[in-house]
Predict the 3D structure of the following.
Amino acid sequence: MAAPLRARKTKASSTRKSRKKPGMFSHLKRGITGLVVLIILVLVLGVLVNQALKKNKHGQVMGPIAAIPEVQRHPVHPPAEIKPPDFEIYPKTEPAIPPVREVLTKPHPPQKGKLPSIAIIIDDIGYDSKIAEKFIGLNAAITLSILPHSPYQRQIIKMAREKGLDLMLHLPMEPLEYPAVNPGPGALMTTMLPDALIRQLNDDLDAVPYIKGVNNHMGSKLTASSDQMNQILSSIKKRDLFFIDSRTTAESQARSSARLFQVPYAERDVFLDNVQDPEAIRKQFRLLLQKALINGQALAIGHPHALTFQILQEELPEIQKKVTIVPASSMVHPAG
């Protein structure tokens, strides 16, 4: 009896062992499968996060807004918190009386019976459609210079073209005061490598259609860089555009670069509204007329201030008796 009992126990023990082995393999198999699935999920999640954080060419984080068409991202009425960039950084000193300007070609005093010419460029356009519409509505050949990537530029361009006005790109450039003063979206910086500078320049040029020329927004630091102004004027030449130097620094190299690449060129004679005071602005208009009488022509730059518009509207009838207001494109000459 003892021997059969031991045999049964051995057989039962063997059966229990054989049942345990498949259970252990099964658990191990399920564990490996779960681990593989977890790894796949982690990899997929990593790809999704990487795509979500991928940056665009401007270095901005791309999120769900990237799928929205451009026209929807820049609505006709952008939110009130959109703040325009700072207006011009004016030179610290300007001549008190107008000397005979050193022009690129020989001065041409007005011919007998012919009025001298002035051009008035209104800079920093694109962030206030109402004030832009007021300037466009004046009975004069005002030129508008538009900041790239500005929220109202499309409707302003449409209104200006209906009136036959000249359009320019107001190209943001690094001022000496940077970073305390930011020139705004699309700015060209002295720290940019040549390829990055040209990419940003082309992006700005493409952003504002129907332009005939370019002038600098700020730029007291960058316009003093001969190499970078050569790069900029070279690209402007390829697009058959002119360049007007806002002259925010006496160290500007724009003229020599324009001469080198034979880009039609002119310089600002007067800032109309660097002091926001009615009498100060009227005085600048008188200075503009005086320079036009001396040289036969003169070029002024103003900004979309309500006070600037008010004074211009009031002075316009008298101004038009003494000079002819022409588009900025009529003021440029070969740099020689």
About this structure: Strands lie at 117-125, 143-146, 167-173, 213-218, 242-245, 265-267, 270-271, 297-302, 324-325. Residues 55-81, 95-107 have pLDDT under 50 and may be disordered. The CA atoms of residues 8 and 14 lie 10 Å apart.
